[in-house]
TrEMBL record:
This is V-type proton ATPase subunit a. It comes from Diploptera punctata (Pacific beetle cockroach). It comes from the Eukaryota. Belongs to the V-ATPase 116 kDa subunit family. Signal peptide: none annotated. The keyword Transmembrane helix applies. Essential component of the vacuolar proton pump (V-ATPase), a multimeric enzyme that catalyzes the translocation of protons across the membranes. Required for assembly and activity of the V-ATPase. Keywords: Coiled coil, Hydrogen ion transport, Ion transport, Membrane, Transmembrane, Transmembrane helix, Transport. It is found in: Membrane. The keyword Ion transport applies. It is a multi-pass membrane protein. Residues 102-129 form a coiled coil. One of its GO terms (molecular function) is proton-transporting ATPase activity, rotational mechanism.
Protein backbone atom coordinates (compact mmCIF):
# COMPACT_ATOMS: atom_id res chain seq x y z
CA UNK A 1 0.00 0.00 0.00
CA UNK A 2 1.22 3.50 -0.79
CA UNK A 3 -0.80 5.58 1.64
CA UNK A 4 -3.37 4.95 4.35
CA UNK A 5 -6.30 6.81 5.80
CA UNK A 6 -7.06 6.73 9.54
CA UNK A 7 -9.78 4.24 10.45
CA UNK A 8 -13.18 5.83 10.98
CA UNK A 9 -15.08 3.86 13.59
CA UNK A 10 -18.38 4.27 15.36
CA UNK A 11 -20.93 4.33 12.58
CA UNK A 12 -22.20 1.39 10.62
CA UNK A 13 -22.39 3.56 7.49
CA UNK A 14 -18.88 5.04 7.71
CA UNK A 15 -16.28 3.54 5.39
CA UNK A 16 -13.66 1.27 6.85
CA UNK A 17 -9.90 1.71 6.68
CA UNK A 18 -8.83 2.04 3.04
CA UNK A 19 -5.49 1.90 1.34
CA UNK A 20 -4.32 3.13 -2.04
CA UNK A 21 -2.57 0.32 -3.89
CA UNK A 22 -0.45 0.35 -6.98
CA UNK A 23 -0.69 -2.74 -9.18
CA UNK A 24 1.79 -3.92 -11.79
CA UNK A 25 0.22 -6.35 -14.22
CA UNK A 26 1.62 -8.18 -17.24
CA UNK A 27 -0.33 -7.08 -20.37
CA UNK A 28 -1.27 -10.67 -21.25
CA UNK A 29 -2.69 -11.23 -17.76
CA UNK A 30 -4.40 -7.83 -17.51
CA UNK A 31 -7.84 -8.90 -18.79
CA UNK A 32 -8.16 -11.97 -16.55
CA UNK A 33 -6.70 -10.13 -13.51
CA UNK A 34 -9.30 -7.35 -13.80
CA UNK A 35 -11.98 -10.00 -14.34
CA UNK A 36 -11.01 -11.67 -11.06
CA UNK A 37 -10.81 -8.33 -9.21
CA UNK A 38 -14.23 -7.44 -10.60
CA UNK A 39 -15.74 -10.68 -9.31
CA UNK A 40 -14.14 -10.04 -5.89
CA UNK A 41 -15.60 -6.52 -5.98
CA UNK A 42 -13.29 -5.06 -3.36
CA UNK A 43 -11.29 -2.47 -5.28
CA UNK A 44 -12.07 0.89 -6.87
CA UNK A 45 -9.72 1.96 -9.64
CA UNK A 46 -8.48 5.50 -10.23
CA UNK A 47 -8.41 6.81 -13.78
CA UNK A 48 -4.75 7.43 -14.61
CA UNK A 49 -5.71 8.66 -18.09
CA UNK A 50 -8.20 11.36 -17.15
CA UNK A 51 -6.47 13.75 -19.60
CA UNK A 52 -6.81 11.26 -22.46
CA UNK A 53 -9.77 11.40 -24.84
CA UNK A 54 -11.92 8.23 -24.76
CA UNK A 55 -11.10 7.55 -28.42
CA UNK A 56 -7.34 7.63 -27.89
CA UNK A 57 -7.18 5.09 -25.12
CA UNK A 58 -5.49 1.75 -25.52
CA UNK A 59 -8.55 -0.55 -25.50
CA UNK A 60 -10.87 1.61 -27.60
CA UNK A 61 -11.34 -1.01 -30.35
CA UNK A 62 -12.23 -3.67 -27.73
CA UNK A 63 -14.85 -1.32 -26.22
CA UNK A 64 -16.25 -0.83 -29.74
CA UNK A 65 -16.40 -4.60 -30.15
CA UNK A 66 -18.51 -4.75 -26.99
CA UNK A 67 -20.76 -1.94 -28.30
CA UNK A 68 -21.37 -3.97 -31.46
CA UNK A 69 -22.25 -7.06 -29.37
CA UNK A 70 -24.63 -4.93 -27.28
CA UNK A 71 -26.30 -3.69 -30.47
CA UNK A 72 -26.85 -7.30 -31.58
CA UNK A 73 -28.25 -8.17 -28.15
CA UNK A 74 -30.68 -5.22 -28.27
CA UNK A 75 -31.92 -6.33 -31.69
CA UNK A 76 -32.34 -9.97 -30.55
CA UNK A 77 -34.14 -8.87 -27.36
CA UNK A 78 -36.52 -6.61 -29.32
CA UNK A 79 -37.41 -9.48 -31.68
CA UNK A 80 -37.99 -11.86 -28.74
CA UNK A 81 -40.26 -9.27 -27.07
CA UNK A 82 -42.11 -8.65 -30.34
CA UNK A 83 -43.23 -12.30 -30.30
CA UNK A 84 -43.98 -12.22 -26.55
CA UNK A 85 -41.49 -15.00 -25.87
CA UNK A 86 -40.60 -15.04 -22.14
CA UNK A 87 -36.91 -14.50 -21.29
CA UNK A 88 -35.95 -16.90 -18.48
CA UNK A 89 -33.93 -15.56 -15.54
CA UNK A 90 -30.46 -17.02 -15.07
CA UNK A 91 -29.70 -19.15 -12.05
CA UNK A 92 -25.90 -18.84 -11.98
CA UNK A 93 -24.25 -15.58 -12.96
CA UNK A 94 -21.70 -16.25 -15.70
CA UNK A 95 -18.19 -14.85 -15.37
CA UNK A 96 -16.68 -12.56 -17.98
CA UNK A 97 -15.69 -14.61 -21.04
CA UNK A 98 -11.98 -15.25 -21.34
CA UNK A 99 -10.32 -14.05 -24.58
CA UNK A 100 -10.90 -17.42 -26.30
CA UNK A 101 -14.57 -17.45 -25.31
CA UNK A 102 -15.07 -13.90 -26.65
CA UNK A 103 -14.68 -15.20 -30.21
CA UNK A 104 -17.23 -17.97 -29.51
CA UNK A 105 -19.61 -15.40 -28.02
CA UNK A 106 -19.24 -13.18 -31.10
CA UNK A 107 -19.92 -16.15 -33.37
CA UNK A 108 -23.03 -17.17 -31.39
CA UNK A 109 -24.46 -13.64 -31.46
CA UNK A 110 -23.65 -13.21 -35.16
CA UNK A 111 -25.40 -16.51 -35.95
CA UNK A 112 -28.47 -15.66 -33.83
CA UNK A 113 -28.79 -12.16 -35.30
CA UNK A 114 -28.39 -13.36 -38.91
CA UNK A 115 -30.89 -16.17 -38.49
CA UNK A 116 -33.52 -13.88 -36.93
CA UNK A 117 -32.91 -11.18 -39.57
CA UNK A 118 -33.26 -13.70 -42.39
CA UNK A 119 -36.48 -15.09 -40.91
CA UNK A 120 -37.86 -11.57 -40.47
CA UNK A 121 -37.01 -10.64 -44.04
CA UNK A 122 -38.58 -13.86 -45.34
CA UNK A 123 -41.72 -13.15 -43.34
CA UNK A 124 -41.92 -9.58 -44.70
CA UNK A 125 -41.55 -10.88 -48.29
CA UNK A 126 -44.20 -13.55 -47.76
CA UNK A 127 -46.56 -11.07 -46.10
CA UNK A 128 -46.02 -8.61 -48.97
CA UNK A 129 -47.00 -11.34 -51.45
CA UNK A 130 -49.96 -12.22 -49.26
CA UNK A 131 -51.08 -8.57 -49.15
CA UNK A 132 -50.80 -8.19 -52.94
CA UNK A 133 -52.76 -11.38 -53.60
CA UNK A 134 -55.42 -10.42 -51.05
CA UNK A 135 -55.82 -7.01 -52.67
CA UNK A 136 -55.98 -8.59 -56.13
CA UNK A 137 -58.63 -11.06 -54.91
CA UNK A 138 -60.75 -8.16 -53.61
CA UNK A 139 -60.25 -6.21 -56.86
CA UNK A 140 -61.42 -9.19 -58.94
CA UNK A 141 -64.37 -10.01 -56.66
CA UNK A 142 -65.65 -6.53 -55.91
CA UNK A 143 -65.33 -5.09 -59.42
CA UNK A 144 -67.49 -7.87 -60.88
CA UNK A 145 -70.70 -5.84 -60.44
CA UNK A 146 -69.04 -2.71 -61.89
CA UNK A 147 -68.08 -4.55 -65.06
CA UNK A 148 -71.52 -6.17 -65.28
CA UNK A 149 -73.14 -2.70 -65.08
CA UNK A 150 -70.79 -1.30 -67.72
CA UNK A 151 -71.42 -4.21 -70.05
CA UNK A 152 -75.17 -3.91 -69.48
CA UNK A 153 -75.20 -0.33 -70.82
CA UNK A 154 -74.34 -1.40 -74.37
CA UNK A 155 -75.42 -5.02 -74.14
CA UNK A 156 -71.93 -6.09 -75.18
CA UNK A 157 -69.22 -8.01 -73.35
CA UNK A 158 -66.91 -5.01 -73.34
CA UNK A 159 -66.86 -2.34 -70.64
CA UNK A 160 -68.18 0.54 -72.72
CA UNK A 161 -70.11 3.21 -70.96
CA UNK A 162 -71.96 6.36 -71.91
CA UNK A 163 -70.73 8.87 -69.36
CA UNK A 164 -73.80 10.97 -70.12
CA UNK A 165 -76.27 8.30 -71.18
CA UNK A 166 -78.95 10.71 -72.41
CA UNK A 167 -76.66 12.17 -75.05
CA UNK A 168 -76.92 9.96 -78.12
CA UNK A 169 -73.80 11.46 -79.74
CA UNK A 170 -71.70 10.52 -76.73
CA UNK A 171 -73.21 7.04 -76.84
CA UNK A 172 -72.31 6.73 -80.48
CA UNK A 173 -68.75 7.86 -79.68
CA UNK A 174 -68.55 5.28 -76.90
CA UNK A 175 -69.55 2.45 -79.16
CA UNK A 176 -66.84 3.51 -81.63
CA UNK A 177 -64.08 3.83 -79.03
CA UNK A 178 -63.73 1.10 -76.47
CA UNK A 179 -63.69 2.37 -72.88
CA UNK A 180 -60.37 2.04 -71.03
CA UNK A 181 -60.11 1.35 -67.32
CA UNK A 182 -57.63 0.97 -64.47
CA UNK A 183 -58.41 -1.04 -61.36
CA UNK A 184 -56.73 -1.28 -57.98
CA UNK A 185 -56.84 -0.33 -54.33
CA UNK A 186 -56.28 2.99 -52.61
CA UNK A 187 -55.97 3.88 -48.88
CA UNK A 188 -59.51 4.45 -47.63
CA UNK A 189 -58.87 7.88 -46.11
CA UNK A 190 -57.59 9.20 -49.47
CA UNK A 191 -60.69 8.25 -51.49
CA UNK A 192 -62.55 11.64 -51.41
CA UNK A 193 -59.45 13.60 -52.51
CA UNK A 194 -58.60 10.87 -55.07
CA UNK A 195 -62.10 11.17 -56.58
CA UNK A 196 -61.89 14.98 -56.75
CA UNK A 197 -58.50 14.87 -58.43
CA UNK A 198 -59.66 12.36 -61.08
CA UNK A 199 -62.68 14.59 -61.77
CA UNK A 200 -60.43 17.63 -62.11
CA UNK A 201 -57.84 16.15 -64.50
CA UNK A 202 -60.53 14.71 -66.80
CA UNK A 203 -63.10 17.54 -66.58
CA UNK A 204 -65.58 15.00 -65.28
CA UNK A 205 -64.79 12.36 -67.91
CA UNK A 206 -63.61 9.66 -65.51
CA UNK A 207 -66.27 7.39 -64.10
CA UNK A 208 -65.10 6.04 -60.72
CA UNK A 209 -66.66 3.05 -59.02
CA UNK A 210 -65.50 2.00 -55.55
CA UNK A 211 -66.12 -0.57 -52.81
CA UNK A 212 -64.54 -0.69 -49.36
CA UNK A 213 -62.57 -3.74 -48.24
CA UNK A 214 -64.38 -4.31 -44.93
CA UNK A 215 -61.62 -6.26 -43.14
CA UNK A 216 -58.37 -4.40 -42.41
CA UNK A 217 -55.22 -5.69 -44.11
CA UNK A 218 -51.89 -6.16 -42.30
CA UNK A 219 -48.92 -3.97 -43.10
CA UNK A 220 -46.10 -6.50 -43.90
CA UNK A 221 -43.38 -4.45 -42.17
CA UNK A 222 -45.12 -3.11 -39.06
CA UNK A 223 -48.07 -5.47 -38.63
CA UNK A 224 -50.34 -2.40 -38.27
CA UNK A 225 -53.85 -2.49 -39.71
CA UNK A 226 -54.46 -0.71 -43.00
CA UNK A 227 -57.84 0.03 -44.54
CA UNK A 228 -58.20 0.07 -48.32
CA UNK A 229 -60.86 0.67 -50.94
CA UNK A 230 -61.16 -1.13 -54.28
CA UNK A 231 -61.79 1.11 -57.28
CA UNK A 232 -62.21 0.97 -61.04
CA UNK A 233 -61.82 4.16 -63.05
CA UNK A 234 -63.43 3.99 -66.51
CA UNK A 235 -62.45 6.58 -69.13
CA UNK A 236 -61.78 7.02 -72.83
CA UNK A 237 -58.55 7.42 -74.70
CA UNK A 238 -54.87 6.67 -74.16
CA UNK A 239 -54.14 10.30 -73.36
CA UNK A 240 -56.30 10.20 -70.24
CA UNK A 241 -54.82 6.84 -69.24
CA UNK A 242 -51.38 8.25 -68.43
CA UNK A 243 -52.95 11.12 -66.47
CA UNK A 244 -55.14 8.75 -64.46
CA UNK A 245 -52.12 6.55 -63.70
CA UNK A 246 -50.13 9.56 -62.47
CA UNK A 247 -52.95 10.44 -60.06
CA UNK A 248 -52.96 6.82 -58.84
CA UNK A 249 -49.22 7.02 -58.10
CA UNK A 250 -49.70 10.34 -56.29
CA UNK A 251 -52.38 8.87 -54.04
CA UNK A 252 -50.39 5.67 -53.24
CA UNK A 253 -52.90 3.52 -55.09
CA UNK A 254 -51.78 0.04 -56.17
CA UNK A 255 -52.96 -0.93 -59.64
CA UNK A 256 -53.72 -4.55 -60.53
CA UNK A 257 -54.13 -6.18 -63.92
CA UNK A 258 -57.77 -7.03 -64.26
CA UNK A 259 -59.02 -8.75 -67.46
CA UNK A 260 -62.05 -7.15 -69.12
CA UNK A 261 -63.67 -10.51 -69.99
CA UNK A 262 -65.77 -12.23 -67.33
CA UNK A 263 -64.47 -15.78 -67.97
CA UNK A 264 -60.83 -14.60 -67.64
CA UNK A 265 -61.60 -12.77 -64.39
CA UNK A 266 -63.29 -15.89 -63.00
CA UNK A 267 -60.31 -18.05 -63.95
CA UNK A 268 -57.92 -15.54 -62.38
CA UNK A 269 -59.82 -15.33 -59.09
CA UNK A 270 -59.69 -19.14 -58.73
CA UNK A 271 -55.93 -19.12 -59.22
CA UNK A 272 -55.48 -16.28 -56.70
CA UNK A 273 -57.54 -18.07 -54.02
CA UNK A 274 -55.48 -21.26 -54.43
CA UNK A 275 -52.20 -19.30 -54.15
CA UNK A 276 -53.47 -17.54 -51.02
CA UNK A 277 -54.18 -20.88 -49.34
CA UNK A 278 -50.67 -22.15 -50.13
CA UNK A 279 -49.11 -18.90 -48.92
CA UNK A 280 -51.05 -19.06 -45.68
CA UNK A 281 -49.59 -22.49 -44.99
CA UNK A 282 -46.03 -21.32 -45.72
CA UNK A 283 -46.56 -18.24 -43.50
CA UNK A 284 -47.65 -20.42 -40.58
CA UNK A 285 -44.64 -22.71 -41.01
CA UNK A 286 -42.30 -19.68 -41.12
CA UNK A 287 -43.88 -18.28 -37.96
CA UNK A 288 -43.50 -21.63 -36.14
CA UNK A 289 -39.85 -21.86 -37.16
CA UNK A 290 -39.20 -18.26 -36.03
CA UNK A 291 -40.88 -19.00 -32.69
CA UNK A 292 -38.66 -22.06 -32.12
CA UNK A 293 -35.50 -20.05 -32.93
CA UNK A 294 -36.53 -17.22 -30.57
CA UNK A 295 -37.35 -19.63 -27.73
CA UNK A 296 -33.92 -21.28 -27.96
CA UNK A 297 -32.13 -17.89 -28.18
CA UNK A 298 -34.16 -16.48 -25.26
CA UNK A 299 -32.63 -19.14 -22.97
CA UNK A 300 -29.13 -17.78 -23.71
CA UNK A 301 -29.99 -14.09 -23.78
CA UNK A 302 -29.50 -13.16 -20.09
CA UNK A 303 -26.21 -15.10 -20.02
CA UNK A 304 -24.94 -13.28 -23.08
CA UNK A 305 -26.00 -9.90 -21.70
CA UNK A 306 -24.12 -10.40 -18.41
CA UNK A 307 -21.01 -11.66 -20.20
CA UNK A 308 -20.92 -8.69 -22.59
CA UNK A 309 -21.56 -6.23 -19.77
CA UNK A 310 -18.70 -7.67 -17.69
CA UNK A 311 -16.42 -7.75 -20.70
CA UNK A 312 -17.14 -4.09 -21.46
CA UNK A 313 -16.55 -3.12 -17.82
CA UNK A 314 -13.15 -4.86 -17.94
CA UNK A 315 -12.04 -2.92 -21.03
CA UNK A 316 -13.30 0.36 -19.54
CA UNK A 317 -11.23 -0.41 -16.44
CA UNK A 318 -8.14 -1.33 -18.48
CA UNK A 319 -8.47 2.06 -20.19
CA UNK A 320 -7.78 3.65 -16.77
CA UNK A 321 -4.37 1.92 -16.59
CA UNK A 322 -1.01 3.31 -17.63
CA UNK A 323 1.57 1.50 -19.71
CA UNK A 324 5.04 1.69 -18.15
CA UNK A 325 7.90 3.14 -20.17
CA UNK A 326 9.27 -0.23 -21.27
CA UNK A 327 5.75 -1.32 -22.39
CA UNK A 328 6.34 -4.52 -20.44
CA UNK A 329 3.62 -4.00 -17.89
CA UNK A 330 0.48 -2.08 -17.06
CA UNK A 331 0.30 0.10 -13.96
CA UNK A 332 -2.94 0.64 -12.09
CA UNK A 333 -3.94 2.47 -8.93
CA UNK A 334 -6.90 1.48 -6.82
CA UNK A 335 -8.46 1.97 -3.42
CA UNK A 336 -9.10 -1.18 -1.41
CA UNK A 337 -10.24 -1.92 2.16
CA UNK A 338 -7.21 -2.98 4.21
CA UNK A 339 -8.93 -6.14 5.41
CA UNK A 340 -9.63 -7.18 1.81
CA UNK A 341 -5.97 -7.04 0.73
CA UNK A 342 -5.48 -10.84 0.98
CA UNK A 343 -8.49 -11.25 -1.30
CA UNK A 344 -7.05 -8.72 -3.76
CA UNK A 345 -3.73 -10.59 -3.78
CA UNK A 346 -5.55 -13.88 -4.36
CA UNK A 347 -7.56 -12.39 -7.26
CA UNK A 348 -4.36 -11.13 -8.86
CA UNK A 349 -2.72 -14.52 -8.44
CA UNK A 350 -5.76 -16.25 -9.98
CA UNK A 351 -5.84 -13.77 -12.83
CA UNK A 352 -2.15 -13.99 -13.52
Amino acid sequence: GVSKEKPKMGSFFRSEEMTLCQLFIQPEAAYSSVAELGEAGSVQFRDLNSEVNAFQRKFVSEVRRCDELERKLRYIEAEINKDNVPIPEIEDMPKAPNPREITDLETSLEKAENEIMELSQNAVNLKSNFLELTELKHVLEKTETFFAEQEGVNGTDSPTHALITEDTNVQAANVRGRLEFVAGVVPRERVPAFERMLWRISRGNVFLRQAEIEDPLDDPKTGNEIFKTVFVAFFQGEQLKSRVKKVCIGFHATLYRCPNVYSEREEMVKGVRARLEDLNMVLNQTQDHRHRVLVSVSKELQNWMVMVRKMKAIYHTLNMFNMDVTKKCLIAECWAPVRDLPEVRKALADGG
